[in-house]
Amino acid sequence: MPYTIYLKKNEEKRLLAGHSWVYANEVAKIEGKDKNGSLATVCAFDGRFIGKGYINHASKILVRIFIRNQDTDEGDFYYNRILEAWEQRKKLGYENCCRVVFGEADNLPALIVDKYADVLSVQCLSLGIHQRKKTIVDALVRIFSPRGIFERSDVAVRAKEGLQQEKGVLYGEVPDEVIIEENGLKMSVDVKNGQKTGYFLDQKENRFALRRYAAGGRVLDCFCNSGGFSLNAAITAKQVTAVDVSQFALDNVNKNAQLNGLKNIKTECADVFALLREKRAAGEKYDLVVLDPPAFCKSASEAKDAYRGYKDINILGMKLVEKGGYLATCSCSHYMTLPMFEKMLSEAAKESGRRVRALEIRIQAPDHPALLNEEETMYLKFFVLQVL
Description:
By secondary structure, this protein is α/β, with parallel strands linked by helices. It has helices at 13-16, 77-91, 127-131, 133-144, 204-209, 211-214, 228-234, 247-259, 272-281, 303-319, 338-352; strands at residues 4-7, 21-23, 27-31, 39-43, 49-55, 61-67, 97-102, 111-116, 119-124, 148-153, 166-172, 178-182, 185-189, 218-222, 239-244, 265-269, 286-291, 321-331, 356-362, 381-387. Helix 2 (77-91) crosses helix 4.
């Protein structure tokens, strides 16, 4: 008999507003008996139907709702859901590279599918999705006829679902290097070993927007990874310095620069915090400084320390900007909310002794949509500031 979950009184409000997650401590009782990872029905305290999702007794997120009617996940369910998501991306002009499925925002919680030319990269982040991997791969093959599909479920969050990390070929042939096209640039992507699923697709539009601020100037791109911001800036800039602590990442920057015939990019392997202090002490200035650090906080308990880290690096960044120049600064942690990030930037401006104004405030690219009632999906903040 399938599981039916009954919530405590008033715990249904967030779910009825569109949120997907049912936490174990919100549940009053569970009826029925089925396998862990099976499709369970969620009801309010008074028995009102809310939705269906996969149950996992090992996780604090007991159920992730993705069906809001009496349908099931059988037959062509995954084919239809993934096809719908892909059609939405194509309407927005995406084709060569994009995020095809963005978990909860595409009504497929815990499933990530990224398209890199003719190769797909997949993450299965919950028990229910993990158990239906073959069905999902079959649907992807029908829709895309890809050269290959690679799994990048080598992420720590799977431990919260009682799952081990996994990576490997799920279908076809996956080369060590995939060449994609982004904003008219060729980029080499290592689907097997690159960051996340191979490359950070969520900054695509933000990288293109940077070109106007880089025009004719000296650019310092910090935490450059494989060079997405560096290459876009180099299209209009006089000189770009790309900095990362990883020589592997910098080798990728140089490879991508060569792919596009760009000769105005140089790389520096260094700890960004230390390097910014050195450059400040040396009196160096840049027309544009880019700060795109990894997530400083991956849990709510780390937010306070992360706040200090973000402020520190933004103070340093502001001090390195020429008068009238620009600072492009980001946070990819949803725990660092937009109001928190804006407050931090205001404090950083005050403590840097610079007068600063905001020119643009952006979020992740449209192929990474955010649900207004599920704040976890609104994670990327991108500010362009002018330092006066």
